[in-house]
Amino acid sequence: MWEIRFHGRGGQGIVTAAELLTKAAHFEGRHVQSIPFFAAERRGAPVKAFARISDDEIYTREPVSRPDIIVSIDRTIWKQVDLTEGVKDSSIFFLDSRKNSEEVKKNLGINNEVYTTDARSIAMRVLNRPITNTTILGALASRLNFVSLDSVKKAINERFDGEIAKKNIEAVEEASKKVE
């Protein structure tokens, strides 16, 4: 089972990112679970969401405390939230950042596997908005073996209509090619 913790801010679509990832994995025959977690419930406040993806049935329902994968779609959240909380030596980080993975490792004080992509710049250029929730999924799909880029695109097509889906898919495809 893969347990994933997403970090972002209210209004950035972090819950949608978790839902889209689990939907994409479900298309591939996996068992999935998406869990939103709201605290202050206001735009801009730190928000978490959790996802589980497994080849077997999932019986647990609590939030993820020892994530296999940590995803952050907000570059400033690191100053307010401990992204390393509960991580294992084998945990993998996917972060929206202009910094390379070695810089991020140093900043976070970790030796884990880290992937970065400049999701914000991609989203601004393609979507004309700093919403990186779908964009970061391109990075995940390009590096992980439990969900394909095609399934992520299919999930986006089911969630969004027309031009919105098309632009989000374009951002996902670009991010999948620009992962450091």
Structure keywords:
single chain, 180 residues, alpha/beta, Pyruvate-ferredoxin Oxidoreductase, domain 3, six-stranded mixed beta sheet, 6 helices, 6 strands, globular, Oxidoreductase_gamma_subunit, oxidoreductase, pyruvate synthase activity, Pyrv_flavodox_OxRed_cen
CATH first level: Alpha Beta
Question: What letter string, H or E per element, gives the SSE order?
Answer: EHEEEEHEHHHH
Taken together, the total number of domains comes to 1
Radius of gyration, whole Å? 15 Å
Count of helix runs = 6
Assembly status: single chain
Q: What proportion strand?
A: 15-25%
Descriptive notes:
The chain is of the alpha/beta class. It has one domain: 3-Layer(aba) Sandwich (Pyruvate-ferredoxin Oxidoreductase, domain 3). It contains six helices and six strands. It has helices at 14-27, 101-108, 119-127, 133-143, 149-159, 162-177, and strands spanning 2-9, 31-37, 46-54, 69-72, 92-96, 113-117. A six-stranded mixed β-sheet has the order 2-3-1-4-5-6, with helices on both faces. A hairpin with an 8-residue loop joins strand 2 (31-37) and strand 3. Residues 10-175 form the Pyruvate/ketoisovalerate oxidoreductase catalytic domain. Keywords: Oxidoreductase.
What's the arrangement of secondary structure elements?
Blueprint: E1 2-9, H1 14-27, E2 31-37, E3 46-54, E4 69-72, E5 92-96, H2 101-108, E6 113-117, H3 119-127, H4 133-143, H5 149-159, H6 162-177
Parallel strand pairs: 1-4, 4-5, 5-6
Antiparallel strand pairs: 1-3, 2-3
Helix pairs in contact: 1-4, 1-5, 3-6, 4-6, 5-6
